[in-house]
């Protein structure tokens, strides 16, 4: 078994707003092993980004880590001093954001910015850093790296900027890279380039990665293990093959079947999850997914939330029902049409009546 | 081939909607109310308007002194003496009642000038912004020329060339005109900028795709959506106009006596500033507080109406 | 019950064409000297058939959104003609334009930007009805409620403002607005790309249901090929202002003729780790060149894995010609040889 790099234990992160306490991360525990790629998936507002920001202690304002431990190589991140946390952020963990433009300084040359990231943590002297910048840009496959170090961020295209961000993240040789939707803002072909790059880097450098995304395909392509989050909680976790082959939590199942696959020719209906994610300041009782769950039973509404129980080797899920107990008819039912036939008929009738005078 | 009706009927309906039920304007009012300085400013302005409205009545019924009457027995009395709460000036006129009546001029100038600026700025800004191209170029160069004139100098020239006799509100006409002429430029530019940015919004495209005419686009979409910044600009324009009028009166080219104005009072008071400082201090404070009150309101409105403040 | 069985029958290749784009150009001058212009749409020929969904894919800057605006007459063309139902809409003015506009509507990408924040939902939905003088005022109100019900929203929400709704709900309002005047053709410009996955699925299903119910013709524009394949009968691929390939949705996936199509398809990850392990994406060199100064000859040649440079690829612009399956056209000198 590989060595555990990061261990998050029962993390609670809350936002104290005027409308109440928002439980953005509500008792999350997981770990990242050295060298592995862990996918954290869920829809916007499920707490995946807040988990990452908690690990780096970069939470935006009314947010606070209320309880829990974040152990990185035996040190608790939540107890670090400001000095230690700065050291930790640059040297041990680096983060890549969705939009590279907002995290790059527009008036400083790319090369200079990467250099500053290196010298800030006193790991490299200025002369040493300068030499490494070109090497780093080459490593992330920026063409003509020698001349492009003198460019400003706006002279870089979106894909190149993301490469520069990755180079900056890698500059201090961190052992964990947290990537928050690193390809969402990019075009399809550029996205493929970046995915390729991240795979190569993971192989070459052995950097562990925590990939935060809503894109299940990206997870399938890059990750070894997956954590599925919903409403601030982990609802399912397991090895990537297992999760994709037999997801046990209805949310994971729906998430997988709500995206069309480019390699499928059938025009099958997609599974859509009805309604909206819950308001995290007033979450529903019982299982938090029950108001949207197509396979809900009475127990889900009244009993306290189920625990994360082992459902297969290495796979845990938080559900009373589990997908393997769901009947095929119910699965088909979940795909049925949501159109109001009655309204459609009325609309057609009314256009037939009134359509003439204006249509002609 | 249609879907079986059973699969379609009783379809789930997405009834839930987050609870918030206020419109954008009432939302803005909620935010405005939370800004204490803005509410204070609004209070001061309401108080001033009240004063301006009732002071002629108070004079009529003799509750306060006649602001024009020169009381020789009490020239330059300090505050509180002989029933002159704020003292009197060099001619023995009651400072309090002059201040109260002076608010009429200041408020009229402040508010009415904006009333003149609003249609001019709006019309020019909307036309330039909406039609763009050559029309925009022409109108904006025209505004640039106006912008290049030094404000005060222009107003001074207009007011000294064109003066009207009559009661104070008739005398104000050239002052209104002059101030409005130099101030519409800012609003026109703002409106044009607003229209240019709103024009690119998808909802304008959507309205065009729905068959809306240009006039409807302007009136139903562009105007309501740029109203916020327009209101803020107009509010900030009020103290500007009040100040300009005070300067004109101070320089002696504004409203002619006997109607008291604050600028004029400061000018009169400076003649005896050492002997009787209160006759300068009170009108100066009146101007200052009024400007501050309108600025507070403007700040409050800007924060309340600024779309970036919306969650 | 599956739409797949029905799809080919519904749209035979001989079906009359609803929209016919012939040599459409749209150049945006960028000022300065030398007459430089962004050549957003640079000679597009395309047919949209009655009752079908034509998927239009391409990366950002390929001109697909501009093309959508040309087809819906939201922008004038620089050159070329666009025939809608037998009429050239580039020549229509006034009343003629209004009559055509009523038949074609658009669903926009950003559900937050496409609804006027100062109008209530009822006013938003009623606007097209007012503009086209549909029915009496009472009938319009009633129709607004039916529209809301149709897209799965509470019909009593007419006096709510857009900001009170979530992204998915707003997109439904946008769809209801497009349906208000009973159009026959709807352009969906990245209609689901701004939405969360589960919400996007709701909207995709709704669009399919509505098409079936009201016999709509869709032009579905997206950068996500998976979604496009799921919804479309035929797919057109755009690159740098030109259509490079058009084919049936299965043909284009099974045997793409243009190397760009092939690369585009192969670069999309599949939500299946087993497939992903063996998938070898064709990663293209570099990024899309500037549409101000597109490459000579075939526009794709600087990034193309099979281009012969110097040679025919960098010198001669390939025309759209039949290649591969029936009803498949591609603009490549070496079509199918990747």
Report on this structure.
The complex is a heterotrimer of chains A (360), B (311) and C (338). Chain A is an alpha/beta fold and 360 residues long. Chain A is 37% helix and 22% strand. The longest helix of chain A has 19 residues, at 341-359. Chain A is globular. In chain A, 49% of the residues are buried. Chain B has helices at 5-8, 24-34, 36-60, 95-131, 133-148, 151-161, 168-199, 202-209, 214-251, 262-270, 278-305. The longest helix of chain B is centred in the C-terminal third of the chain and has 38 residues, at 214-251. The model of chain B is unreliable at 1-19 (pLDDT under 50). Chain C has 12 helices and 12 strands. In chain C, strands 6-7-8-3-9-10-12-11 form an 8-stranded mixed beta sheet, with helices on both faces. In chain C, strand 9 (234-239) and strand 10 (242-248) form a beta hairpin. In chain C, helix 4 (121-131) runs parallel beside helix 6 (167-179) and helix 5 crosses helix 6. The longest helix of chain C has 18 residues, at 197-214. Classes of the chains: A alpha/beta (360), B mainly alpha (311), C alpha/beta (338). Chain B binds chain C through residues 1-3, 11-15, 17-18, 20-21, 23-24, 201-203, 205-213, 216, 220-221, 224-225, 307, 310, and chain C through 1, 6, 69, 72, 74, 98, 101-102, 105-106, 108-110, 113-119, 127-128, 131-132, 149, 152-154, 157, 160-161, 163-166, 168-169, 172, 174, 177, 180-181, 209, 212.
Could you list some keywords that capture this structure?
heterotrimer, A: 360 residues, alpha/beta, eight-stranded mixed beta sheet, 12 strands, 37% helix, globular, disordered C terminus, C: 338 residues, four-stranded antiparallel beta sheet, 33% helix, disordered N terminus
Short structural summary:
The complex is a heterotrimer of chains A (360), B (311) and C (338). By secondary structure, chain A is of the alpha/beta class. Chain A contains 14 helices and twelve strands.
Biggest pleated-sheet summary of chain B: none
What is the general shape of chain C? globular
Number of helices of chain B: 11
Sheet/helix structural class of chain C: alpha/beta
Largest interface: A-C, 68 and 74 residues
Number of strands of chain B: 0
Low-confidence parts of chain B: 1-19
Average of pLDDT of chain B: 79
Tell me the number of helical segments of chain C per DSSP (H or I, 4 or more residues long): 12
Q: What's the mean pLDDT score of chain C?
A: 86
